[in-house]
Amino acid sequence: QQPAWQCRCEVTVHAGIAGYLAVVGSGGRSTFGSSSLSFTKCKQVASRSIDVRGDSPRGLAALPHEMTHVVLADWLDGQQPPRWADEGMAILADSHEKQMLHERDLSCGLAQGSAFRVAELLTIDGYPEPNRIPAFYGQSASLTACLALRDDPARFVEFLRRVHNDGYDRALRDIYHIENVAQLENHWHSQRLAWNSGYHGVQLVLSAAPAFDAALSN
Prior knowledge:
Elements: E1 9-14, H1 17-24, E2 33-39, E3 45-53, H2 57-61, H3 63-75, H4 83-91, H5 96-112, H6 118-122, H7 133-148, H8 155-166, H9 168-176, H10 181-194, H11 210-216
Parallel strand pairs: 1-3
Antiparallel strand pairs: 2-3
Helix pairs in contact: 3-4, 4-7, 5-7, 7-10, 8-9
């Protein structure tokens, strides 16, 4: 049970792109939503904010994605989640249509060689070079879904905590009974084949998750 938030998450809906970019910066020109957190020296969240564009339906549609980033940081007690897991969980809160676009990008990336070996994906610190970003998002969502569906999805957060303390191989053994990262890669490829189209069919819905509801109500 997570404690009640001491600071609310401020959500700002901007009337147009100019106001939105004034807050998130020019790098957000192709986005419709953005989230930001700051932390104290004790790793407590000092501020939370989400900015979305109100001049397009995609703005409010981005809210579950951005809120997932905010809530995940809280669950991990101020630790930065691995980039793939942070984006993977957030994408699982997106609409079916948007997830299908990410799956399309992953399929193209696998065919063209711009996708990642799983060991590489797990250790990316920031974002990859631009030509590999589409595959990165699609593969992050697919791998996250693969692990989330292997057990109670709530155990994925515990897995990320174990990764931070013990590394991937031990966390995989303890949480998912997968021996190491190499075995995870084999399992992921097998799971994609079992999904036929490769699409995992997973969508997080904030209103259906008590933990998210509790966070949003404070």
